[in-house]
Specification:
By secondary structure, the protein is mainly β. The chain has 1 helix and 31 strands.
């Protein structure tokens, strides 16, 4: 191909690639099936380059397989499995439910934000974070039926509000499993993790108070930096020999049982106002 012709054709190809990306809004006009073009406005099925809008007060949206989009914004309804939705750009969850073996994946390099004041629920679903997830807004998250929030190595989950994650639906106990980084920052009030917390990565409290109120097993790092407070509440917290407590903030035990077999390297304070703290080999 001659250079002049190449210069003419190449911009056209780029424009064609850009035009293939579209914004699709879910209507659920004929069924709950993601793959039915008649359920979307405009008519069609979203693909990997597209943005998806799932408004409030719309019917359930069933994945029934693996789907990938560039952007996803859920304001209501129910995102239903089985299946996995991978959001490669940015996503927002401002309302609605993720349920029935649905996996929402934020991969490395992508971001997701939990925001707004509407109710949200994770019922038998999974939110898996390999990129960056931020929890903002003013509403709690209710969970049940074995729901899972999972932060994999390299993933970051930021708590930027003073809300709670609770076992408020039936079925198997939900949990939060961290092999990456969970950190509380910016807000000065109290965040509650009312589900078992399993920490193989790093938990960091930079401001406010983070309360762990349903126990869990851990082998990772717990860091509280002043004025941050990390509080252990109800349940049994099993902290293996690989666990470390560090920082110049406050570690507080108010109820339940904490069995610390790891290392305590605090330059701040450890406060016992209730419950039991057992040092079983910690230094």
């Amino acid at each position: 191909m001659q250079p002049t012709l190449l210069r003419q054709v190449f911009p056209v190809l780029l424009l064609a690639g850009t035009l293939r990306a579209a914004e699709f809004t879910w209507s659920g006009a004929v069924s709950s099936d993601w793959s039915n073009p008649a359920n979307w406005t405009p008519t069609g099925v979203p693909g990997p380059a597209d943005q998806v809008i799932y408004p409030a007060r719309k019917p359930a949206l069933s994945l029934n397989g693996a789907r990938t989009v560039a952007g996803f914004a859920q304001a209501g309804g129910a995102l239903v499995g089985p299946g996995q939705l991978t959001v490669t750009g940015s996503g927002t969850w401002s309302g609605g439910t993720i349920r029935d073996n649905c996996v929402l994946l934020i991969p490395a390099g992508a971001s997701g934000t939990i925001t707004g004041s509407a109710s949200r629920a994770l019922v038998g679903g999974t939110v898996r974070v390999a990129g960056l997830a931020r929890w903002e807004g003013t509403a709690n998250i209710g969970a049940g039926e074995g729901a899972l929030v999972e932060i994999v190595p390299g993933g970051i989950f930021e708590l930027r509000n003073d809300e709670g994650f609770y076992h408020s639906y039936g079925g198997a106990t939900p949990s939060l499993r961290n092999a990456g980084t969970v950190r509380k920052l910016e807000s000065t009030g109290t965040s509650n993790l009312g589900v078992p917390f399993h920490n193989e990565g790093e938990l960091v409290v930079l401001s406010g108070t983070l309360r762990l109120t349903r126990g869990g097993s851990s082998s990772g790092r717990f860091l509280a930096t002043a004025p941050g407070v990390l509080e252990f509440g109800d349940g049994t917290h099993e902290l293996s020999p690989a666990t470390t407590w560090q920082g110049n903030g406050i570690f507080r035990v108010t109820s339940g049982t904490v069995n610390l077999a790891g290392t305590c390297e605090l330059t701040g304070k450890a406060v016992i106002s209730g419950g039991t703290l057992n040092f079983t080999g910690a230094s």
